[in-house]
Amino acid sequence: MTRIVMTLLAGAAMAAGLAAQGQRPQHGDVPELAYQVTEGQNLNAFVRDGEVAAHLLLRNGIDPRILIAFPAGNSGVGLWFESLPRPATWTLDAAPRPITLQDDKGRPLHGIMTETTITVPRLAFKQAVLSNVRFLRDYQSVGHFPPEVATRPQVAADRIVWRRDRLDGAPGYRLELRVIEGRLSASGIEAGAGGRIRIAIVAATGETPLHGIPLDQLLDARAANDAGARNALRFLSYQEKFNAGSWRFNTYFGRDTLMSLRLLMPALRPPAIEAGLGAVLARLGPQGDVAHEEGIGEFAVVEHRKDGRGGDGATLDYGMVDDDYMLAPVAAPYLLGDPAAARRFLARPIASVAHPGASESAGAGLVRNLRFVVAQAQRFAAAPRATNLVGIDDGRLTGEWRDSEEGLGRGKYAYDVNAVLVPAALEAGARLLAAGLLDPYLSRADRQALATAGTMAATWRAKAPDLFRMSLPAAEAGPLIRRYAASVGVPAEPALAALGTAPLTYHAIALDAQGRPVPIINSDEGFALLFGTPDPAALGTYVTALMRPFPAGLMTDVGLLVANAALAPAEVQARFTPAAYHGAVVWSWQQALFAAGLQKQLARSDLPPTTRRTLLAAQATLWRAIEATRATQSSELWSWTYQGGRYRVVPFGAGKLDVDESNAAQLWSTVYLAVQPPRSRR
């Protein structure tokens, strides 16, 4: 726990300045978690200790910024500077130390103090934003944030402070810079005689702290000895919820929680698994659908004010459809693995985040979700045609993990949702029903509905995948691949050689509103490997399609790409570049999904030797790429460039054309703690 002590940082100046305001720095001698990661142009430092959890980001290059994100309330403070004529690099002179201050009303603010140097003639202030991280995200990406959260700085001698209460009067946020070397003015900081600027930083939030999951309740002895992944998982894991990623997604996301739980499950301890499942159940919608993202803290305050209401209750987004069908197939392996522990967990009351003050048992919540799954699956089970599939909500372009506007190629019916997740959810419901674990929570109508789940699942498994099947003769695919390879600056010959004379057969990423396939080769076959039992012949065909070298397939030296638009029209290709968030880029967790799926399929006893050889070759190729990029493994995603006859990693967000930047700590990129290479590669 954090202890109240006075500290000296940058001599006595910082401590004395804070004490003069009636504020007391606080920290433990050694934080329970502290580590640093440099990724692209971002220097990241993380610290967690007691009531303090913070992520410091210092942006290098020509557009410097200082940003501190806090898991508490998904809050943060950021300071953007005007562009520099030449790139500059920050040096972290003192690692962030946890502190607790008091605001003007004597209320606690938890945060950090640190010290950094940059060698530039001048840093001109551009904009400070102190609020919820979603507003900092907005300013970073589009240059706007709600005007009501703006604040003016207070300048005195060598110190400048931005501070404000939350809009509803709750404890707010503070960012303070004290110039140690250089000269401060209201518009910026001039370098000192040595040509550099050295500053001490204090950043803090008044949002309610989260409670970290103790290490002895998080991972068991099977977890890989990967310090980077362990650090990231610890920073993102709390008794209240798992956060999706920092700095940009430092709060609950349903899909991220569920997929991470499933992939980490072999190495997670029961308290951690139950914390994750409980967080999902606590946020179920009235019909039993899974919440995608929560809006909390000042973001919720602003949203409620728009609706003419007060309060800061969480706002929950139910617009995604894939997470609705993940809960049951993720929960089932844990619940069926230890029925006694399952019964205890299912009987546990879960306090509702969606409806504060209300609660229900975990079992009742799971049944509500299964009731929703069965209801949504009935139309296609009765009449298996494309327009009866589960579609993205009308008026939206997003609805599953590829949740950028172009991620599904403007499709409506996603392959992963319909060919894999819906039948997997139905099958999980049928297994849980047969095991009797849900008996205390079922009405007669629930029991009757779930009794049909197995039959419905068989229809979905048999009929849905073929609607996405595409097959192009090699004579037609070859010229398209060659033309696309030239457009993105990679060689076509390895891809064409791997294709040979066989047709290029794959599952489209989605169907459009009319049921026509969107011709993008994609990595979502990994869902089928992990959550299904494909026919051996189909298994060999579709794994082969993805493992061919890009741009005939998805494989590169730096990993498995998530999308390949070589067979799509030129206007679609322009939306799936290596600079697009869900374009021709590598997502760490998608590789882990594929690796875990291959391992599951190889455990089958019904595979013919040819299929087994195909899977073993794919496994070896995939793990070579994973191991070659181990340094970036805990990142959210990365892009690439082709130089000197090979692909090379480019951190996503480092390029001017990149639409966003990657998180340095991403929940579902920690899954290699459980998804480990086959024994032959260890």
Structure explained in plain terms:
The chain is α+β, with helices and mostly antiparallel strands. The chain folds into 3 domains: 13-205, no CATH class; 282-460, no CATH class; 469-507 and 519-681, no CATH class. 33% of the residues lie in helices and 23% in strands. A hairpin with a 2-residue loop joins strand 9 and strand 10 (159-164). The longest helix has 21 residues, at 362-382. The model is unreliable at 1-28 (pLDDT under 50).
Q: What form results from the Cα inertia axes?
A: globular
The profile of the biggest β sheet is: 8 strands, antiparallel
Low-confidence residue ranges: 1-28
Strand order of the largest sheet: 1-2-3-4-5-8-13-12
Please give the alpha-carbon distance between the first and last residues. 38 Å
User: Level of helix content?
Assistant: 25-40%
Beta-strand percentage range: 15-25%
Mean pLDDT: 93
**Total strand count, please?**
32
Structural class: alpha+beta
The total of helices stands at: 19
Report the radius of gyration as a whole number of Å.
26 Å
Provide the number of structural domains.
3
